[in-house]
TrEMBL record:
Source organism of the structure: Heliothis virescens
PANTHER family registered for this protein in UniProt: VACUOLAR FUSION PROTEIN CCZ1 HOMOLOG-RELATED
One cellular component term from this protein's GO annotations in UniProt: Mon1-Ccz1 complex
Domain CCZ1/INTU/HPS4 third Longin: 501-593
Similarity comment: Belongs to the CCZ1 family.
Protein name: CCZ1/INTU/HSP4 first Longin domain-containing protein
A Pfam family: Intu_longin_1
Lineage: Eukaryota, Metazoa, Ecdysozoa, Arthropoda, Hexapoda
Amino acid sequence: MFRMFKGLFKDYTTEEIYTVCDQFFTPYITSRNLSNDITDVIQGINYLPLDKNSFFKVLCFIDILEVNYPQFKCISFIYNEQIIWNGLATQDMLTLYQYLVQSLLPRQVEKEIQGGAVAAAQKHGRFIHPPEGIHSQEDLQKLVKVHVMKEDDLETKQYYLVIYRTMSATVCFTVDVDVELQFEMFRSLDAFIGPQLSGIASTIINTLICRTFSSEPCEALQTQTKRYIFYQPEKGYWMVLVVRIPYTTKALSAIGESRGADVVDPSVMFDLLKSAYKMFRMFKGLFKDYTTEEIYTVCDQFFTPYITSRNLSNDITDVIQGINYLPLDKNSFFKVLCFIDILEVNYPQFKCISFIYNEQIIWNGLATQDMLTLYQYLVQSLLPRQVEKEIQGGAVAAAQKHGRFIHPPEGIHSQEDLQKLVKVHVMKEDDLETKQYYLVIYRTMSATVCFTVDVDVELQFEMFRSLDAFIGPQLSGIASTISEQCTLHALQTAQLAVSEHKFVYFNRLNLAFKSSPPLTKLNPSTAIKPEVLSIISNIHSEKESLGNYGEIIIKTPDEYWITGKASNDREFYVIIQEKNANLKEIADEVRRICEAQMKGIFFYPM
């Protein structure tokens, strides 16, 4: 550093050398904040890799500048603290680089932050060496001379050092000491280089921003007090869910109060947003079907009550969203199939799309994803309200004896009630595209049947009254048979040893979902700790982590063992909290649970 800015020791007399060295080395040494840092041992230059287009722009800028201003030789181009182009001999470039990043640029950045040079530096740039800038002929006397060897030189020479900066881009020039310095020459350079350098700096900024972020769409952003969840369901349309999150201040922390343990995992909120859109699409259609004036009102009327009605927790059912199927014996299942066939033959306008007992599906006639959305609507919204009505006695007589239409909610008692039928956009199992239908739902004795009616069909009250008279007694008999079998199955299940370990089964093909029974009514079987939920969510979302056949076992610091097994499109997760357990014991317990709970389900042996 001394040699660059002051020359060789031998160039000074004995009387001069002590004074010159003291004036240079004392502030230099004391300004260095040394620590056990590898950069103080291995001293190098941080280069900035750029894409071809950005680097080509820098090279063209340097070439044009040297052609138009031959007095100025561009020796380096720096962005932030990384070099893009170097025109000095390597050792001299290292010394100049250290001067820039350790001394000059930090002071300049501090000035810009304080606002002293923001206007000039950000808009058109300015000379920062000499530090006061170059505004007149007199300022040229302040230019510093350096002793360096340029890349094409054979020996060290003396030059004036000129440094220009704009928008985090810094360019260093040398001017031969034999050149007669003229202020007009520098003013012309400033007018030329300012806009050019600003454009290149903007290009580099954009390149670095694009490189920083993944090519995948951003799904979540978190600040101290809020979490933002993003989802693009249709081209040109984004949904954003904003959730306030609790946080602990220093004052609260000092007295032992903590908030934040109940924060819901981001994956749960993202899946909530996706489910909300699918529900909107089923009952309202696509966003693009509405005008700009309509879309905000329609969305507010739909999403506000839907989102606020959901009671979110760290529940695996909010991440792995599936359908709970009810296994039946052959005779009972055959009765259901015969009922559906006879109904569709006698009433061809009505297509049975699902048969549900309690909250478990027995028959599904929709495309899988649409069935999931309808299933969620039934078990999360419609059926709980209906059960509450039945418990209160408002609809017990009709619902328990012969059944009734529960969608529309008021029932169908006249021709006018048919105007209240809701239209849905769904794709049935035998359809090739989504179509619009009327949705009709009938219920008796915990059995619920959903129908679709084509919107082109002329609705007649007599048609629905006839259906009610036919379906009521038939469905009551089937519901009684299923109820007896469910009671028998419940007794058999109760005799099994209750395990504290939790398991979840999921089939990607038909979205079948099964979980361990809850230990108590107040303790859902699928409610788990956020960190455990996050692990399962990551395994489930990154299907390649397990592959077609695979197994993974993860242990958390608080003694949770999470096991994930995959066989084709079937997944099985077991959560065990066991202190002092080893890998073999966990694997044996998982195998035991798998054999006990997944009879008939083949998992590839590991």
